[in-house]
């Protein structure tokens, strides 16, 4: 199959990135793999989508490192292609991480993705689903029993009342935030600097006030799902625990979080089952679910990561499971009497 990965920058890609794992796995199987960026897209009058892409070529590589070094070198092939001729376009672009996008609520990859869908390309994740899930308010789509008590507002008064009525510690963070930026722990409504904290968080828009889940002291769990279901390699779920560094409430790996093995339990199974219908309905094919205790704290849809950590912890290959499934879907699309127009029939492979 022909597969294109849309990223922020080819040269910002790293060895441990999930995109690198997926692209390398596809390339090693003989698939045509290319990378492109949103800035390389163009749409002609007849809505043909073209892009300048970078390709590692067809020769085999001994390792992911060799693959990535070749891709980022002057030896990589650079050409313009018609993306509607590709089987899969994997949107791995997060506008929140782009310095070039002034309006972080706008994601041009989504609009080009919608046009590609009209051409019958399998776009992952689905552009419409990405639009719906772009905000943390998407969590409100899921059953209340698996969500932490939450308030979303720009009112400092309402935030303080929420903290007061909650009678327990609260987490304040930007609704549009990512990567653990501007996340604060509020012990109670009498915090001396609560107004300053609210002002800091609110500078980027709406504030999400969320009850503090005590189990976060034991870290959160990142679970990878494919078409709404947990990814399993044999009996091992694609999941790991992220431990917060000492003195920090964030467990993000880039701020010093540590990774640990964790067992898949009935709690994660129940949460996955409850969110599965919505994820499938919205075409959110490959996502990461962040779980603390028995609560779902976040759904990562733009460029969910964790494959590198999971592979190294358990000595498995999660990327192989993803590419396996994509191969099945592409075969089904190509063999369907309706051809590429029959994407709605592609469910659980």
Could you explain the architecture of this structure?
With 349 residues, the protein is α+β, with helices and mostly antiparallel strands. Helices cover 28% and strands 25% of the residues. The protein contains nine helices and 19 strands. The chain has helices spanning 18-28, 64-71, 108-118, 127-133, 156-166, 194-202, 266-281, 307-314, 318-335; strands spanning 2-7, 32-37, 41-43, 49-55, 77-82, 88-91, 122-124, 150-153, 170-174, 184-186, 207-211, 220-226, 229-230, 232-233, 236-237, 239-243, 258-260, 286-292, 295-300. The strands form five sheets. Strands 12, 13, 16, 17, 18 and 19 form a six-stranded antiparallel beta sheet that branches. A four-stranded parallel beta sheet has the order 2-1-6-7, with helices on both faces. The longest helix has 18 residues, at 318-335. The chain is globular, with a radius of gyration of 21 Å.
SSE succession: EHEEEHEEHEHEHEEHEEEEEEEHEEHH
Figure out the total of helices: 9
Biggest beta sheet attributes: 6 strands, antiparallel
Rounded to the nearest angstrom, the distance between the terminal CA atoms is 16 Å
Please tell me how large the radius of gyration is: 21 Å
Structural class of the secondary elements? alpha+beta
Shape, please? globular
The tally of strands reads: 19
């Amino acid at each position: 199959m022909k597969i294109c990965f849309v990223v922020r920058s080819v040269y910002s890609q790293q060895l441990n990135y999930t995109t690198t794992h997926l692209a390398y796995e596809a390339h090693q199987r003989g698939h045509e793999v290319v990378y492109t960026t949103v800035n390389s897209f163009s749409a002609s009058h007849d809505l043909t989508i073209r892009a300048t892409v970078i390709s590692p070529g067809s020769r085999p590589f001994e390792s992911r490192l060799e693959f990535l070094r070749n891709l980022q070198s002057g030896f990589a092939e650079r050409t313009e292609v018609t993306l509607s001729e590709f089987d899969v376009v994997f949107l791995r672009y997060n506008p929140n991480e782009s310095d070039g996008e002034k309006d972080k609520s706008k994601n041009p990859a989504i609009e080009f993705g919608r046009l590609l869908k009209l051409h019958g390309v399998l776009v992952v994740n689905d552009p419409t689903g990405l639009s719906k899930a772009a905000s943390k308010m998407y969590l409100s789509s899921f059953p209340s029993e698996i969500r932490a008590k939450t308030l979303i507002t720009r009112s400092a008064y309402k935030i303080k009342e929420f903290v007061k009525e909650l009678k327990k510690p609260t987490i304040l963070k930007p609704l549009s935030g990512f990567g653990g930026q501007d996340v604060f722990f509020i012990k109670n409504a009498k915090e001396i600097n609560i107004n300053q904290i609210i002002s800091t968080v609110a500078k980027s828009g709406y504030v999400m006030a969320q009850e503090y889940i005590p189990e976060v002291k034991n870290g959160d769990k990142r679970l990878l799902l494919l078409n709404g279901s947990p990814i399993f390699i044999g009996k091992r779920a694609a999941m790991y625990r992220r431990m917060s560094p000492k003195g920090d409430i964030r467990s993000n790996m880039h701020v010093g979080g540590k990774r640990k093995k964790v067992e898949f339990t009935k709690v994660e199974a129940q949460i996955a089952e409850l969110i599965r219908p919505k994820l499938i309905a919205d075409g959110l094919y490959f996502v990461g679910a962040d779980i603390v205790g028995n609560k779902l704290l976040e759904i990562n849809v733009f460029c969910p990561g964790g494959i590198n950590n999971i592979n190294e912890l358990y000595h498995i290959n999660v990327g192989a499971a993803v590419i396996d499934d994509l191969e099945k879907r592409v075969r089904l699309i190509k063999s369907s009497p309706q051809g590429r127009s029959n994407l709605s029939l592609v469910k659980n492979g």
